[in-house]
Amino acid sequence: MADAFLERYRERTRAVLIARGGHPVPDDASFAAGAQALHLADENRAHRALLVVLLSGGASAMLAAPAEGVTREHKIAVTRELLASGRPIAEINALRKQLSAIKGGKLGARAGRSITFALSDVHAPVEDDPAVIGSGPTVGQRFVLIGSRRDAMRGAREAAERLGYEVRIIDPPVLGEARDAAAAFVSRARALTRDSTRRTCVIAAGETTVTLPAEADHGRGGRNQEFALASALHLDDASRCAVLSAGTDGIDGPTDAAGAIVDETTLMRAREKSLDARRALQAHDTYPFFAALGDHVVTGPTGTNVGDVFLFLRSDAPRAEVAGT
Fold it and tell me: What is the pLDDT of residue 304?
């Protein structure tokens, strides 16, 4: 986003800050970026200049500045607690604002004048809500939405159609606990493809949550890997279906995977390797499960974030043909 902006407006740009802090929990780089952002806002006010904010999901963690009386340690601890709670991102960001000197329009107020170009990973309760994206650092001033989950769905649709799939779209965002959302998605996708006579791709997008146990130990994984594994438990062994769940940012939880792919052979192959799918799901330990099967989706960080994409593929072709496509 910064490269594209500077290609057009470099001569009119006085200073640039790119936040490269930690995610989903803020780190020292996050707090350094937050301090620099506030300094830049102060300078802009002094120069009566316009602050241009290129905003994307993840900014809540990567651009951090504690409110007066709040310590870094407290802010980090609260963030960890909120992320483990399974709360929707809108609720999490509402609480983050109370601890921040940047969020909730405070950066924009500090600068005086601002315009924000945003990539949205916010799907509910109000889709693409400026007050929730990145916890709304400039909310209340000019805001332009330049990308959302619908752009990701459109790209997926174009790719599927080029590959010869008939495409069906689930328009409402996929939300809620990952394992429950997966069951609902597979059921809905089955219904949409029941009468299809061609290879069919069902596309949805959104962002699920995972509620981790408050005290009990848990394994390693992320919401997309949980969604994929839960989907596998609802696929018929005889059907020729596959499900992909992946984050558009290329990162699923504290792992190097974007998500995972499952099909009608997943549980059978897992049993052959003495892997227990239900136990892995219950223990929130999905990363080792998919690593053993080689079924992770690994893209590396994509540099953008518009939520998660979910695909359901169904084919009437012989199984050998499906495996080779």
Answer: 85
- pLDDT of 48 reads 95
Strand order of the β-sheet with 200-206 is: 166-169, 200-206, 308-314, 241-247, 259-263, 296-297
Q: Cα torsion for 88, 92, 93, 99, to the nearest 10°?
A: 180
* Mean pLDDT (the chain, rounded): 92
* Three-state helix/strand/coil letters over the chain: CHHHHHHHHHHHCCCCCCCCCCCCCCCHHHHHHHHHHHHHHHHHHHHCCCEEEEECCCHHHHCCCECCCCCHHHHHHHHHHHHHCCCCHHHHHHHHHHCECCCCCHHHHHHCCEEEEEECCCCCCCCCCCCCHHHCCCECEEEEEEECHHHHHHHHHHHHHHCCCEEEECCCCECCEHHHHHHHHHHHHHHHHCCCCCCEEEEEEECCECCCCCCCCCCCCCHHHHHHHHHHCCCCCCCCEEEEEEECCCCCCCCCCCEEEEECCHHHHHHHCCCCHHHHHHCCCHHHHHHHHCCEECCCCCCCCCCEEEEEEECCCCHHHHHCC
Work out whether the CA dihedral 149, 150, 156, 159 comes out positive or negative.
Answer: negative
Structure tokens at 35: 């301090």
Residue 168 has what pLDDT? 97
| pLDDT at residue number 216 | 67
End-to-end CA distance of the chain: 34
Tokens of 56: 């994307």
The answer to whether the beta carbons of residues 315 and 199 sit under 8 Å apart is: yes
Antiparallel, parallel or unpaired: β 114-119 and 200-206: unpaired
- Which pLDDT score, from 0 to 100, does residue 322 have? 41
**pLDDT the model gives residue 279:** 96
Where the chain has pLDDT below 50, the residues are 318-325
